[in-house]
Amino acid sequence: xxxxxxxxxxxxxxxxxxxxxxxxxxxxxxxxxxxxxxxxxxxxxxxxxxxxxxxxxxxxxxxxxxxxxxxxxxxxxxxxxxxxxxxxxxxxxxxxxxxxxxxxxxxxxxxxxxxxxxxxxxxxxxxxxxxxxxxxxxxxxxxxxxxxxxxxxxxxxxxxxxxxxxxxxxxxxxxxxxxxxxxxxxxxxxxxxxxxxxxxxxxxxxxxxxxxxxxxxxxxxxxxxxxxxxxxxxxxxxxxxxxxxxxxxxxxxxxxxxxxxxxxxxxxxxxxxxxxxxxxxxxxxxxxxxxxxxxxxxxxxxxxxxxxxxxxxxxxxxxxxxxxxxxxxxxxxxxxxxxxxxxxxxxxxxxxxxxxxxxxxxxxxxxxxxxxxxxxxxxxxxx
Length: 383
Prior knowledge:
31% helix; disordered N terminus; 11 helices; six-stranded mixed β-sheet; globular; alpha/beta
């Protein structure tokens, strides 16, 4: 009885820290957000009205000036009156990227999600603004103050917010993210982690994993060039070692084969369509257990949440494969902005929430990142 009461109190305190942003102009957003509020018991809701990204791909991109008026200003007013908010939930129907913004690739185009995550960074003196640069892709953002944190998140301590969204090709797929989160917390985690290393890159220095946002602890005029491919492969290798040490069932594949058509997955990381031996059909046949999370080193894996053809592999296809949480990018992030599987999987397996795990493993905010899933999902939490 005592443990049950403590668990109920823990969940209540978490839900009090969550804000849902509902786009009243989008039937999809209204349905998903109301479903989440009801099933999670979330009371904090901000209703805005903006273009409906569920209608067409063009609506997935929002002019920054409209974002400021229709989303940012009412959000700042709400947050000022509710200082205990730490987690913010967006839904299908909210645009995914901005144009004409002061940060993001080309200094104009970040994700809407990561822009909200960086709320307040522009007025702080203890933040590090940086320029990411490589091969013609360049843009401004900030080093994430929660990066590789050993302490759980709070806005009061770390600044910014942990922003996730409930999205997918369909409203039903977005709602299933909630279902799988609750199922995983009720039944506990199941399945195995699959980590697919692209061995052909070679393996970087595993002793330096996770690689700092500022290599060697220094910034060259605040410009950071792209990390080497083998550094992310080193991160994959270390992620597998850490999970194995925690006695979490893990398969680390270090062959030249892209591993697709796998089922019963509790976690997944790969190069996706950037793997030299990528198997598109095999990728579409990956299947996940409730509570499973994933990351892929794919530049535009979250460029759309509407059915499309061509281009790089999409995280929307992993959502269709019933993953519960996954990170992607609406535009070119450069490899150093791709999440660190070592940190993400380690924190998640230690019982941290989905949002805390992904953001602890993300180096930058105000950039291209989009995190999918119920921010509170924590199937590995001690009961």
